[in-house]
Amino acid sequence: MPEAKRKLDPIKSAIYVVITGLIVCGLSYHYLGFDALSYLPDRSFCPFKIITGIDCPGCGITRAILSISQLKFAQAIEFNYLSFILLISMILYLFKNKLKIKRLNPKLLIVILTIMISVWLFRLLLQFSG
User: Fold this and answer.
1) Are 16 and 94 in contact (CB under 8 A)?
2) Residue 37: count of CB within 10 angstroms of its CB
3) Which has more confidence, 74 or 50?
4) Residue 75 pLDDT > 70
5) pLDDT digit string (tens) for 95-130?
6) Which of 24, 43, 55, 98 could serve as 59's disulfide partner, Cβ 3.0–4.6 Å?
7) CA pair distance 55, 44, nearest whole angstrom
8) 25-65 residue pLDDT tens
9) Contact indicator for 93, 99 with CB cutoff of 8 Å
10) Rounded distance between C-alpha atoms, residue 14 and residue 52, angstroms
């Protein structure tokens, strides 16, 4: 009998691509001095920011994750406070089977959403206060 094909999880595949890219960026920065952050455009391509002029909760995540890959943790926090939560969430999702996590607790999702909104409001206060 033919073996059953394993179904590929698209979210897991995307996370593998992102983490592989981060590792490559981090290693190229460390060994070759290549700074991927310097190649990102200065202006935002976030539709929410383009329309409203206000940062969205995810603004700065790309730069923050690249900073983490280069071990520039303080710079990552400056770009977006939530970058560490996102990275940890991605890693947990990758290893959810090994950690025997069947599904996320809805209360945890509410806590994460509350943190995201709170951080966003805090960033807005900082942005408009000076």
Assistant:
1) yes
2) 16
3) 74
4) yes
5) 777 777 777 677 877 887 888 888 888 888 887 786
6) 55
7) 9
8) 777 776 777 666 666 666 666 788 778 888 888 888 878 88
9) no
10) 29
- State how far Cα 43 lies from the chain centre: 19
Tracing tokens 């406070």 back to the chain, one arrives at: 81
Determine the Cα–Cα distance for residues 24 and 70; give it in Å rounded to an integer. Answer: 10
Assigned token pair, 6: 């394993």
Contact residues for 48 (Cβ-Cβ < 8 A; gap 6+): 54, 56, 59
Q: Tokens for 118? A: 């709170």
Q: Looking at this protein, which amino acid is placed at residue 123?
A: R
Asked whether the CA dihedral 9, 48, 108, 61 is positive or negative, the reply is positive
How is residue 36 annotated by DSSP?
Answer: G
Residue identified by tokens 């190229």 is 28
Structure tokens at 25: 């960026």
C-alpha atoms less than 13 angstroms from C-alpha of 2 in its C-beta half-sphere:
3
Of 74, 77, 62, 69, the residue nearest 119 (C-alpha): 77
Q: With CA atoms as reference, report the closest residue to 68 among 44, 37, 112, 31.
A: 37
